[in-house]
C-alpha cells in the first residue's frame, strides 16, 4: 500500500466471495491504488498446436449450447467469442461514421478491432499532413468519435485502459457521480496521491 503496509488480496482457493472483490479492483487500477509485490499465478502447458475456428450457428441457443462442450472437452480454448449480427452492424455503422469524419478532416483513420466483443482500436494517421495542422485537428476529431461511441452505448476503452490521454473522455462518459466514486476509491487507497498521479482520474 502507499503507506508501506503489506496486504493480501485474493486467495489460493478456487472460489472466494468473502467481502468486496479488491483483487480485481487493484488489477484494473493501472498502478494508481497500490503496488503488487507478490503474485500467485496458475501455469498451464503451452499447447502443441493452435487453431482458430469460425463456426456459424442458425440460432443463439445452439451457439451458447456449444460453449460447455468446448470447456469440458480436451481442448483448452484461450477465447470463445460470440459475434451477433447486430454487433457487426453497429461496428460497420461506426466505421462509416469514421469514414465521413475522415473525409471532413483529411485525417486518415485506421480502425482495427475484435468483432467478437466489439472492441475497436482507432488510430489517427498524420501521413504527409502538416504536423501543426494535424495536432490542431486531432482533439476535435477524437471528441467527435468518442461522442459517437457514447451515442451507440459504447465505452472509452475496452482493453488498454485510460492512462493520462483518455482522462477527459472518461469524465465525459461516466459523469460526475461516477467520477466522484472513483476519486473516493483513490483517496481510500492513496490519500497523498503518490501513485501515478493524474492517471485514470484527476483529483480535485
How does the major sheet shape up? 2 strands, antiparallel
Radius of gyration: 21 Å
Oligomeric organization of the protein chains: single chain
Distance between the termini: 22 Å
Spatially, the strands of the biggest sheet line up as: 1-2
Low-confidence stretches: none
Total DSSP helices? 5
What is the H-and-E element order?
Answer: HHHEEHH
Average pLDDT works out at: 85
**Strand fraction:** 5-15%
- Structural class comes to mainly alpha
Number of strand segments: 2
Shape: flat
Essential attributes:
single chain; mainly alpha; two-stranded antiparallel sheet; 5 helices; 7% strand
Explain what this protein looks like in three dimensions.
- This protein is mostly helical and 204 residues long.
- 41% of the residues lie in helices and 7% in strands.
- It has five helices and two strands; from the N terminus they run H-H-H-E-E-H-H.
- It has a two-stranded antiparallel sheet.
- A hairpin with a 4-residue loop joins strand 1 and strand 2.
Summarize the helices and strands and which ones pair or pack.
Elements: H1 22-27, H2 60-71, H3 85-105, E1 108-114, E2 119-125, H4 131-151, H5 167-189
Antiparallel strand pairs: 1-2
Helix pairs in contact: 3-4
Amino acid at each position: 500500500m502507499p503507506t508501506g503496509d503489506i496486504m493480501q488480496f485474493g486467495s489460493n482457493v478456487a472460489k472466494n466471495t468473502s467481502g468486496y472483490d479488491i483483487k480485481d479492483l487493484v488489477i484494473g487500477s493501472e498502478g494508481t491504488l497500490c503496488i503488487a509485490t507478490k503474485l500467485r499465478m496458475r501455469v498451464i502447458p503451452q499447447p502443441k498446436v493452435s487453431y482458430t475456428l469460425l463456426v456459424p450457428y442458425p440460432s443463439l441457443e445452439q451457439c451458447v449450447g456449444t460453449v460447455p462442450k468446448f470447456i469440458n472437452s480436451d481442448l483448452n480454448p484461450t477465447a470463445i467469442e460470440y459475434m451477433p449480427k447486430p454487433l457487426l452492424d453497429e461496428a460497420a455503422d461506426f466505421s462509416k461514421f469514421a469514414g465521413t469524419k475522415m473525409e471532413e478532416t483529411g485525417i486518415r483513420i485506421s480502425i482495427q478491432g475484435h468483432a467478437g466483443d466489439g472492441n475497436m482500436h482507432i488510430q489517427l494517421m498524420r501521413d504527409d499532413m502538416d504536423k501543426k495542422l494535424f495536432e490542431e485537428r486531432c482533439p476535435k476529431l477524437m471528441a467527435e468519435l468518442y461522442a459517437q461511441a457514447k451515442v451507440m452505448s459504447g465505452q472509452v476503452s475496452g482493453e488498454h485502459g485510460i492512462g493520462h490521454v483518455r482522462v477527459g473522455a472518461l469524465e465525459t462518459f461516466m459523469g460526475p457521480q461516477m467520477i466522484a466514486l472513483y476519486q473516493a476509491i483513490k483517496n481510500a487507497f492513496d490519500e497523498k496521491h503518490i501513485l501515478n498521479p493524474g492517471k485514470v482520474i484527476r483529483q480535485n
